[in-house]
Amino acid sequence: MTQTAETAPSGMPRPATRPADDSPVKPRPFLAAWSLAWREIIRFVRQRNRVIGAIVQPALFWVLFGAGFDRSFAASAQGGASGQSFQAYYFPGSLMLILLFTAIFATISIIEDRREGFLQAVLTAPLPRWSMVLGKVAGGSLLAVFQGLIFLLLALTLDIEWSLTRVLLLTLLMLVSAVALTSLGFVIAWRMESTQGFHAIMSVLLMPMWLLSGAFFPIPPAGDGASLVQQGMHWLMRCNPLTYCVAAARRLLFDGAALDAWQTPDQWVCWTVACLFAVTMFAAACWISAQRTSGDLL
């Protein structure tokens, strides 16, 4: 006969005790990354006013600027040669503006998490830093793609031949661009201790970066007869990685002579630069997360 429970000296059975487990807890980086990404999604659902800032404002810009600049765009050399309206030209730029705004709002949470002490608790966990970066970037990128898909419904009002392949490629491009922009926002926000400093950097870096991406006006020609300012702007826009994200979206949405009139880079060049942009920014975010912070850059 075997004994099934221990008994106390008084005859009362002792409560069952859990055997001691001295094995170390194995870190699960991908589970931690998914938990952080899910937290970003939950925060977004609970802060619905972020939808207004991320979707309604670019959509409002698209409608108002499209109506206001349509005649001026048609009278210009590049706009007249393309035969497209300004709303059609401006649509890929508005799509990237939504991704940019979502990246900004998502990475501002890094500053808030540090101020509230949540980030310090995450950093003390026995996890690699890339796990924390992956969670923050994945959460912001998924939200950006979701909002971009909602805005993409407005493209049904444009003269575009839709197909499943085109929609899937656009979704993949939005994901790559969102990873690049969210990682860039992470790099900037990691050194910040105040949201005011982040907004200052956003005004002098991120918004000019978007304006010089071909989102609002085509790349000016740099051939004979071009002024020094036009040549400088031409090469500045050519060196801007966001230019190729906008151009890739434009090539997926439109085809024909309009792309040549707008000096749109080739598709394979656009995808190559966009992927390199995303990989470089994510690597930079992982690197800077291992550095110590001392205060705002400003």
How do the strands and helices of this protein lay out in sequence?
Elements: H1 29-46, H2 49-68, H3 70-75, H4 77-82, H5 86-116, H6 118-123, H7 129-152, H8 164-190, H9 195-211, H10 228-238, H11 241-253, H12 257-261, H13 267-289
Number of strand elements: 0
What is the end-to-end distance?
Answer: 78 Å
So what's the overall shape? elongated
Roughly what percent helix?
A: 55-70%
| Order of H and E elements | HHHHHHHHHHHHH
Radius of gyration: 25 Å
Beta-strand content: under 5%
Class from helix and strand fractions: mainly alpha
Number of helical elements: 13
Oligomeric assembly: single chain
Low-confidence stretches: 1-8
The overall pLDDT, averaged over residues, is 81
Largest sheet: none
Instruction: Return the domain count.
Output: 1
Task: Describe this protein's structure.
By secondary structure, the chain is mainly alpha-helical. The chain has one domain. Helix content is 69%, strand content 0%. The chain has 13 helices and no strands. It has helices spanning 29-46, 49-68, 70-75, 77-82, 86-116, 118-123, 129-152, 164-190, 195-211, 228-238, 241-253, 257-261, 267-289. Helix 2 (49-68) packs antiparallel against helix 5 (86-116), helix 5 (86-116) runs antiparallel to helix 9 (195-211) and helix 8 runs antiparallel to helix 11. It comes from Lignipirellula cremea. Residues 1-24 are annotated as: Disordered. One of its GO terms (molecular function) is ABC-type transporter activity. This is Transport permease protein. It is a multi-pass membrane protein.
